[in-house]
Amino acid sequence: MQLFLLGYLIISICEIFTVGEFPLNWKVRVAFTGIHLGVITATLWILMLNAMVGYQILDDGTLLSLGLIIGSAIVIFIGTGYIALDTGYSWTGHFDRSLAAPNRNIGLYVLYQLAPLVFLFTYFVLEAILVLRVLKERKPLIYLAAAALLFAIGQIFDYVISTHICHGTHGKIDGAFFETLFTLLSVAMVWYFWSSITEDDWPMPVASTYP
Question: Which of 3, 28, 45, 198 is the most buried (most CB within 10 A)?
Answer without folding.
Answer: 45
